[in-house]
Amino acid sequence: MTAQTKKRGAAENGDGGIGLGLAAFIANNEDLGPIVRHAFESGKPEALLHSLRNVVKMKEVEIEEICRLHYEEFILAVDELRGVLVDADELKGTLSDENLRLQDVASALLLKLDELLELYSVNRNVGESLATLKICLQVTSLCKKCNRDIAESKLHPALKTLELIEKDYIQNIPLKLLKKVIQKQIPMTKLYIEKKVCSEFNEWLVYIRRMGKEIGQAAIGQTSLASQKDEGVCARRRDVEECSGAGFNEHAYALDVENIDEEAMLEFDLAPVYRAHRIHIGLGLGEKFREYYSNNRLMQLNLDLQISTSQSFVESHQSFLAQIAGFFIIEDRVLRTADGLLSDSQVETMWETALSKVTLILEQQFSLMDTANHLLNIKCYISLLGATMKKYGYRATSLVEILGKTRDKYLELLISDCRKQIKDVLSKDSYERMVIKKENEYDMNVTAFQLEPNNAVPDLPYVAPFSSSVPSACRIVRSFTEDLVRYLSCGSSMNFYDVMKSYLDKFLIEVLNEAFLNLIHDGSLEFQQMVQIAGNIAVLERSCDMFLCHAAQLCGVPRRLLEKPHSGLTAKAVLKASQNAAYNGLITLVNSKVDEFMLQLTSINWTVEEAPEHANDYMNEVIIYLHEVVSSGQQIVPRDALYKVVSGALSHIADSIITILLSDRVKRFNANSVAGMDIDLKTLEGFADDTYHSAGFSDLRKETSFKDCLVEIRQLINLLLSNQPESFMNPVTREKDYGSLDHKKVAIICDKFKDAPDSLFGSLSSRATVQSARKKSLDVLKRRLKDFS
Predict the structure, then answer these.
(1) Helix (H) or strand (E) holding 49
(2) What distances in angstroms separate CA 67 from CA 27, 60, 64, 391, 481, one per listed residue?
(3) Contact at 8 Å (CB) between 354 and 243?
(4) For labelling, which of 99, 205, 675, 785 has a CA lying 20 to 30 Å from the CA of 393?
(5) Is the pLDDT of residue 60 over 50?
(6) Tens of pLDDT along 168-196?
């Protein structure tokens, strides 16, 4: 179809514009929807249909034109195709024949190929199975090893095995069921390991708390042993230094290594701690375990810091303090060996907390204590605790401070205890000279305290110059010294000799000397007891040097320092003064006993009608008593002191007689009673003169003899018996014969002196009697004395 034909067809249709546009859309394969919608909206669908029909006609014309143009080529192609079909038939026959031959030949090969393919499939399956089986065997082997390690409590290797399974095998397990089982069991196994190791650690907590006390006791025991060895070396050195004339011995300073035991190692099992720590780190729970360990140990520490309610602190203090020491020794070992389980700050904080609580407990317990020995034992153990903890790097300054505060309380309790002991010893003493019958008794009571200058044992039985209270008092003083030195030396390296000396002085003065003074002034002692007390004080006064020497030895002070001036004890002079007080007490006792005898003077008939031929009973008793005083006093009391006692007694007798004559008890007395007093006085003078010379008092060369003590009463009796008593008023005579008499006393006594009875019948019978010259002289004396007064 030509272009002119197309134009004609379009003109004939009368709507060429729409037809061309529609043809263009169809040729370009565009959507005809807008054109169709426009045609219907504009109300011209018939025009659209007409155009479509025209387009169809145009396409038919084009088809016819194309067919006409290509018809010849088509014929040729058909011819060629027919030739190809002939060839194809021939080829098909040939192929069919060849196929039949090939099938005949390949049928056997196909059977073998099928077998080969089947074998290849089996081989692949077997290889895959072997690979799967190998992985499963490795995993199950590791699982088995893990179970075995857990069964054998090798928890850390088991945990490593689990980590290996998780890291290298769990993702490669081909069997889903096995993989699922293992994935489920791994967390459960880890939880089991955690619980098991926690269980072991909890058992360790119980074990280590039980072991804590033993560990603390062992460590404190080592410190005590080391301290004793050091003290032994120092003592040996002092002994060598004080040995004179022996020369220097280098071996004396050497420590005998063979006799020293090595310090026992403080062995305790920390393996459960190490294992639990490592396993928790492996589980990624290291911080949780550190917190768990810290909390549990802190709870144990709080329990350890509670003192026992079933026992007194005195009985339980060692276990209490040892438990605390053991706790921190364990913590120190854990800190150093457990690879970060504890930090220095944690341990330091626990130590400071425990130290503050222990300090409060000690302050409270010290305030309740009433026995020095208890306080001493606790103080020494606390000192050992401080020294022990210092070795492990712990500071114990507050312990030292609180111990320093207890010194005054300890001294007060110690002195109080010793005062009770001294009082008990003195109250139980019979104050009789001690009789020692055995050599061991002599060594224990005399030699041990150097109470005799000669160390040789005398012939037994030995009668000591002291009573049983002296060795007992020496033991108490020595015990006081040793306890105080032990207290002062506990935890201290300073030289405390001066402090020790002052306290020893204080003890001897305020306790021992005061006890003797109380005994002396008690007024319940007999003369023999007072004599023995005076002798005891003398022995103890001489023993002061021994007490000081013993204290110096305990304090490590060389003996040569004690030989310096003013290095002795003040108590020595105080005891000397107390000895004089005892002598004065003897005088008081003797005079008191004499007063008992002199009371009989009041029952004497002072107006007796006949002069007695013998001394009165009271005077005989007085002389017997004075004989006993001299004989018993000579064995113990120094001669000078005994002189004072006897002379005082004689002076007191004379004063007592004069006092009786001056008192209202004697209204009057006569010449016969004076003659009786003269006999009494002569008897007493005989005793005084004989005792003064026979007992060796004359060797003292005193200005006044015993007889001179009676001079006043002797001059009074001589005056009353004198034929010329008025000569008393003569100054020369009075100075010569009556120099000891007081004219006032003479006036009173002479006024009571009646040479004749003053009764009615007596006066009547005497009317015829001429007064004697002596009576006249006495009357003159009376008058002149009255005038003189």
Answers:
(1) helix 45-151
(2) 19, 11, 5, 123, 152
(3) no
(4) 205
(5) yes
(6) 777 777 778 877 887 888 888 888 888 88
Residue carrying structure tokens 């729409």: 18
d(CA 596, CA 599): 5
CA distance 669 to 753: 5
Q: Is the pLDDT of residue 337 over 80?
A: yes
**pTM of the full structure:** 0.65
Q: Where are the domains of the chain?
A: 37-152, 203-236+267-394, 409-552, 604-756+770-787
Q: According to DSSP H, which parts of 305-432 are helical? A: 313-337, 344-368, 372-391, 397-404, 407-428
Kindly report which listed range (219-233, 234-248, 399-413, 446-460) carries the lowest average pLDDT score: 234-248
C-alpha closest to that of 273 among 188, 213, 331, 222: 331
Average pLDDT over the chain, rounded to whole? 79
Asked if residues 774 and 723 have their Cβ atoms less than 8 Å apart, the reply is yes
Six token digits for residue 775: 């009576």
Class at the top of the CATH hierarchy for domain 604-756+770-787: mainly alpha
Q: How many residues does the chain have?
A: 789
Q: Identify the residue whose tokens are 């004559």.
A: 661
**Closest CA relative to residue 342, chosen from 392, 269, 293:** 293
Cα 291 off chain centre by:
31
Work out the pLDDT band at 13, boundaries 50, 70, 90: very low
Name the phi and psi angles at 669, rounded to 5.
-150, 160
Location of structure tokens 């002195």 = 415
CA-based nearest residue to 273, from 205, 196, 327, 216: 205
- Element (H or E) spanning 436, and its range? strand 435-436
pLDDT greater than 60 at residue 260: no
Domain 409-552 matches domain 604-756+770-787 at the CATH topology level: yes
Domain 409-552 grouped into CATH 1.10.443.10: no
**Structure confidence at residue 229 as a pLDDT band (50, 70, 90):** confident
Strand partners, 463: 435
CA 636/CA 534 separation, integer angstroms: 8
**The one-letter amino acid at 273:** V
Asked if residue 756 has pLDDT above 60, the reply is no
Report the alpha-carbon distance of residue 2 to residue 62 in Å, rounded: 9
β pairing state of 435-436 and 462-463: antiparallel
> Of the candidates 383, 297, 284, 295, which has an alpha carbon nearest to the alpha carbon of residue 333?
297
Q: How confident is the model at residue 452 (pLDDT cuts 50, 70, 90)?
A: confident
State the average pLDDT over residues 700-717.
Answer: 80
